[in-house]
Structures are given as structure tokens and as C-alpha cells.
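Hello again, I could really use a second opinion on something today. Take your time with it, there's no hurry, and the full record follows here:

___
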Amino acid sequence: MYKNLIIKYIPKITINDIIYFGEKNNVMIDLGEANLILQTIQKDYQTLLSPNYMSIFEKVKPYLSKQCYDKSLDLFLTYQKKYKIF
């Protein structure tokens, strides 16, 4: 159920949404990182919503600050567990 809601919401996400979400979770995300995160979510959402999600995180790791990467992964795992995505 949640998976379908997430898939419908993905095309509506903006860079400002990414930046705001980071700020709300005490992570400063610069414009380049926000753009990469947005593009990755929109392009690779099916993999992110599968057991193979770490392949996407490993792909973007070199392009994100350590704080941004670590917090993104932590938040992803928290929400994945909370909403039982897969």
C-alpha cells in the first residue's frame, strides 16, 4: 500500500522538498547534493524500493558529503522499517 503511494508522489518531489527535508532532519544539503538525490530518486525509485537499495546508495556515495550520505541512509532505513516497504 505505502509503496504505491510513494510511487505516485515521486514525480511531484522538488529540489526544495529535498532541501527542506534535510533541514528538518538536521542535515545541510547543498544544491548539487539535492539535485543528485532528486535525480536518483526519480530515476532509480524501483531499485530503492527493493531489497537491492544499497546498490543505489553505493553509486551516489562518492558524490555526497559523509554527513549527507550517512543521514540519508539512516533516514531511509528508518522509514523503510516504519512503512515496511519490502
Residues 61 and 69 are 6 Å apart (CA to CA). DSSP finds five helices and no strands in the chain.
